[in-house]
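Narrative of accomplishments. A recurring question from our advisory board has been how the design workflow behaves on a single, concrete structure rather than in aggregate. To address it, we present the structure tokens for one chain from the evaluation set, followed by the sequence designed for it. No filtering or post-editing was applied between the two.
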């Protein structure tokens, strides 16, 4: 079992009458990569600033390796933070930016030179050592900021939406780079993101937040396949919701709220004798798969839309000749249905 490294204990933060965080508690193990995931304004960046020592909690405490660091200044925490804006010094070269924090800690020139050389190699920027930030691409600037944080060899590395300003292709590449550096350095890493794909592909553990509270903690597989609430199900990945009354006799509680992922809905052959009838309203090509938007034809009254989204491998709609306005038959595998209490529904976007 991994040893607990960082413990957030009952942390709340109020700004006047506004409550940004409310009784947040969870533990982070050594060498673990944790993503704080949630919509804008949910409190995740405020929590990161509290961990870094840039904000003080209204209540609660932060414990690192058994030591209460709640009141310690940022420089004495053993925690480094990489900001969303990168915050590079425009008048310093790449090497000088990386060396800045080491000079502040009174490292010798020889030690600084060796460490800068080491981290430049780790982020593949040896050729950019003498370039200024304005001469670098966005992805390169991100690597410099990351190298500067890693050079300090912190016990915990904090990343505040580090990829949000980059284009999609660079973002995907740097996801892998950040994960590789995390594994190579062995640092405990906590990253804030509102991007579900980043959290699912990078994290060992995801902490889902909403309105200043932690609503679920688990592995990427846990929160995707076993969401604890309709909010989590809807925020992480595409989802379809139904009333339990649509499946009368199949469930013990017809007042339940049901959900199913688009990739779990099955499209039946045209000559099937059973299935849920629907009509194809629109089709989106998404590279490796097609997303179909369907209108159900069961004729039941419902407070939920009579529409369904399904994902199919790119070759399947061609093979089955799926077309707009075509009638199709669907199967919703019972083992893939998610069941929630009906009053858990608060409305989703």
């Amino acid at each position: 079992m991994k040893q607990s490294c960082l413990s957030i204990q009952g942390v709340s933060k109020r700004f006047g009458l506004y409550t940004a965080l409310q009784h947040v508690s969870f533990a982070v193990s050594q060498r673990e990569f944790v993503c704080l995931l949630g919509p804008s304004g949910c409190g995740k960046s405020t929590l990161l600033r509290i961990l870094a020592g840039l904000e003080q909690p209204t209540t609660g405490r932060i414990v690192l390796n058994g030591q209460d660091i709640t009141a310690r200044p940022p420089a004495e925490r053993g925690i480094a933070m990489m900001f969303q804006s990168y915050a590079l010094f425009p008048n310093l070269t790449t090497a000088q930016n990386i060396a800045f924090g080491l000079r502040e800690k009174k490292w010798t020139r020889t030690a600084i030179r060796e460490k800068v050389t080491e981290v430049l190699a780790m982020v593949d920027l040896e050729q950019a050592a003498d370039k200024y930030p304005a001469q670098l691409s966005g992805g390169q600037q991100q690597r410099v900021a990351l190298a500067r944080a890693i050079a300090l060899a912190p016990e915990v590395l904090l990343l505040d939406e580090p990829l949000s300003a980059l284009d999609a292709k660079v973002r995907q590449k740097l996801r892998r780079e950040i994960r590789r550096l995390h594994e190579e350095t062995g640092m405990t890493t906590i990253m804030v993101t509102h991007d579900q794909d980043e959290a699912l592909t990078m994290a060992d553990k995801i902490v889902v937040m909403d309105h200043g509270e932690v609503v679920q903690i688990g592995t990427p597989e846990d929160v995707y396949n076993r969401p604890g609430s309709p909010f989590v199900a809807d925020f992480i990945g595409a989802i379809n919701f139904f009333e339990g009354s649509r499946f009368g006799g199949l469930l013990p509680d017809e007042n339940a709220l049901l959900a199913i992922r688009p990739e779990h809905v099955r499209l039946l052959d045209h000559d099937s004798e059973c299935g849920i009838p629907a009509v194809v309203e629109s089709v989106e090509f998404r590279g490796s798969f097609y997303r179909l938007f369907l209108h159900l034809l069961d004729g039941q009254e419902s407070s939920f839309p009579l529409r369904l989204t399904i994902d199919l491998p790119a070759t399947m709609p061609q093979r089955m000749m799926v077309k707009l306005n075509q009638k199709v038959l669907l199967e919703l595998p019972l083992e893939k249905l998610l069941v929630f209490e009906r009053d858990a529904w608060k409305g989703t976007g």
